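so i finally got all the pieces together for this one. its two components total, 537 residues if u count the protein bits. some of the lines might not be protein, just check the labels. i wanna see the whole assembly predicted at once instead of chain by chain like last time, that was a mess tbh
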Amino acid sequence: MTWNRRNFLQAGLSTSLIAALPRGAAAQHVFTPKPDAWRNFEMVTRVELAKGQGATQAWVPLPSFSEPEWTRPMGSTWQTNARVAALVRDPKYGAEMLHLAWDGGEAPMAEVTSKFATRDRAVDLAKVGTPTPLSADERKLYTGATELIPTEGIVKQTADMITARARSEHAKARAMYEWIVDNTFRNPKTRGCGVGDIVAMLKSGDLSGKCADLNALYVGLARSVGLPARDVYGIRVAPSKFGYRSLGTSSPIISKAQHCRAEVYLTGLGWVPVDPADVRKVVLEEPPGNLPLSDAKVAAARTTLFGAWEMNWAAYNVAHDVKLPGSTGPAVEFLMYPQAEVAGARLDSLDPDTFKYVITSKELTSS
Amino acid sequence: MANPVPPPPAQATEGKSASSLVEAPQWADGKPSFVLDDITGTRHDLSGSSGRVVLVHFFATWCEPCREELPALQRLLERSRNSGLAIFAVSVGEPDARVRRFFEPMPMNFPIVLDRDRATSKTWRVEMLPTTYVLDRDLKPRLVVEGEFHWDRVTGEQLFDTTPPVRQDR
């Protein structure tokens, strides 16, 4: 899909179209995450690498992101034949990972067990309160550019166009969300979760991708107009309880269930969860597939995923441009997959033939 | 399909391009340069190609148009085999293993070099993929193409002609 100037009009049309939908259209599918009971999960990441390849290192992301209202990490343990196994933390974003190093000899192996608790979240968008304010450092961090998310040039031009008629932070955040739902699409051919190169997307007019592309676009647009925003990188850990096959797992093996979400900070509301990428996932993948935006399930997802998340998903971190400790190689754009190097050469986290890892999850007793 | 237009001289503007297609690259001394390893581990210095017309093609394995252009560049190289054309394909920001595996079924007769940390593509102001620079025998930029391009329609003579190119309409 190529974005052109005509699509500008959709920024204004989309909101009025949503408002004009008969109430019955969205009411036909219930998708109402609410912060009720906490759910406890255990996730196991097992990494196995080929023997005799030389000095090997690996980095396993851990579900360490902590927000008292909706995600509580409960620690990780591991078994490994590595010479080095150390919990390390990225200094800028606090992303936690297990760093492993082997000298050679036996086939490298590690099994990491992580426990965490989650609770559905829903922000009452009509209730302005006094949330914890962002510190100056946090505001700077979450409005700043990253390697693939600049906040000037075409990103800012696009955001300014989208928010031209929006007068409040909330209206701007909403306008950008609706624009992404209307103008992007999930591309089944994109490898993994995508790359998140938002300038390439905007310059080429190819607004397709997966979650790390589409939600990064949201974050970039928001930051460029001064709204703090962040990608939250994680992994789906359970089926959806709201009947969405596309928004949950279908088996205990979740090795390919990584998913990136986004948040935007609004004055009076605090961090507001959003996920326009998942709206596009419902469009593409919810059976029977290729649903129109007017479909009841899509409409419900569109309404809900600005302000709420079902928490069948674990949050790893909010980090960008992550330098892997002990590596002489480049930073990774984001840390959502296990990473590994053999003899200094980075392996492909998306190629199971050359970099084998299995991630499983199970829900423990709920509290 | 993008229309190739000559880029402005690198020093002409301070971080802003007169053509609006590309921001002015930030090459040291205003000269295109890179020193990068290829997928076999061989190091390549662009300056060693002085005296030849050079295509520097920035791509990624995830970029769909790139997958079609690379074989087209191979065919261009074959058509231009007696003219001294050199081509470098620069993989942007991908692990070595992924790039090697990508080329296993389609080996190329030009170096596939690895811009692992995106530093080169940043210096060259590459903002979308594919992006291709055509450098003259003095390694000065003569053409830049942002986006896909049908290299099968280009002859070696067109590349070596120092006059402005005929615009290629979509």
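The longest strand of chain A covers residues 39-48.
Chain A touches chain B through 23 residues (CB under 8 Å).
anyway lmk what u think
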